[in-house]
Amino acid sequence: MIALRKIPLQYLLVILLLHGCAVGKYTPQQKIPPKQLQQDVALLQKTLQQNHPGLHWYAGKATIDSAFTALQLAVKDSLTELAFHNKVAQMVATIECGHTAVRFSKQYINYLMHNRYPMFPLYLLNWENHLYVFKNMHPKDTILTKGMEVVSINQYTARQIIDSLYQFISADANNLYFKAQVISNNFPAWYRLVFGLDSTYQIQFIDTTGAKNRISLKNYVPEKDTTTIHSTTIRSNKAYPLPTKKISSLQLKRSLQLDILHRVAYMHVSSFSGGRLRGFFRRSFSMLQEQNISNLIIDVRGNGGGNVSKSVLLTKYLIQQPFKVADTAVSLHKTMWDKRYIVPWWLYWFPMQWGSVKGADGLFHAKRIENHWYQPKAEKHFNGQIYLLQDGYTFSAAAMFTGTLKGQPNVQIAGTPSGGAYYGNNALFLPHIKLPNSRLRITLPMYRVVLDSARPKNGKGVLPDIWVDPQQHNHLTLPPNALQQVILKIIQQNKKS
Description:
By secondary structure, the chain is of the alpha+beta class. It has helices at residues 9-24, 34-51, 61-73, 81-93, 106-114, 158-166, 176-185, 187-195, 245-250, 277-290, 308-316, 345-355, 367-371, 397-405, 482-496, and strands at 31-32, 79-80, 102-103, 122-127, 130-136, 149-153, 156-157, 200-206, 212-218, 254-259, 264-269, 295-299, 328-331, 342-343, 356-358, 364-366, 385-390, 411-415, 424-427, 432-434, 441-443, 447-450, 466-467, 471-473, 476-478. 33% of the residues lie in helices and 21% in strands.
């Protein structure tokens, strides 16, 4: 092996240039030969059978075997990466595991990043098999506005479109609230993935009078002489301002606002990864004590999870009794079936070797997770009224957070059922299978986790105490606003007291 430091600079530049050219040659239209596709399918099937801890948890063996057979029959001819991705995604979705998802190759993602446009022009809210306009990318179009219901697109009804998209989305126990939220988060991308792009779209919709109308819309492409910026509102902290740009970017992941007059605090946590959460939680709960806050709203809508230890940390500031992460956490083996195609295998191999013990059931148990009890925080513990806001995209560690606190006397959960299952999931260690020919990546959870064996075993999400539906006014249906509902509830309670 040649040491990099011994390569002359001019040769290194040539190598990098050639590498850049090679990457640039990738085109999404190129097809993968059937023999290579069949090799990828065989590898995927063997790896899932050997290592997936919940392959038959919600879907029986006959269902999974049938899905694999259908996938094998579907790769008799050459396919583009997109076509193969969609067929693999349909198969993987039958497992009904939200952590087992299919991603494109890095080359395809790089292509998408540089070819985002044209795009389907509407962001649509998916609610109970109906589609409502959330944002029209054509700002000059004053006909199709926010809240209007879209009945059909190019002769496909809203229900037909939704059912088609659902086939490609993996969800715990086929959780439709999760799937609906995934589509609502980026409808243009999902529409393009499954239906492709047309030059124009015939949209049938219901206007503000309740009558059906039609409109023709073109794809959205930004003007060449302008720069389109998709802005995100940063929640400011008026009581404790954080003015610098670097810290303001952290506000996208977590923020705290205080209403000292009404003794209400609003905490937003969009992820349990990054965001310097340990220090943020410590400072935040100090502030709540200093200002004598009695009502705390914690918003984990859109929080897809992340670091379980950070979820546990936040729980410790709120819970009233000792708790465990899970009753059981088991893997099928202490290692991966074929480490050549597991990335990064080394990161998880060592903790699985030393952190799991074979039980009487023949499975390997993560004893630290199963046996360790966490204690509530002695200092800065919040004892007031707690409102947790969740939605269909409250998943993984975020659903574990709301599920652990559910039923505590001073806790109410508002919104819709969570996307993450209340009973358990396949999670903890999440390497991915990298298929050698297509280079698709499939997330492979290594542990089957039962959070609480006393909970219902139906696979549903954490159910809210306060159900929040979309607002309807003048034939318009607007997205649900759990925060507004909770604030109104707090105001009413304060008036009574």
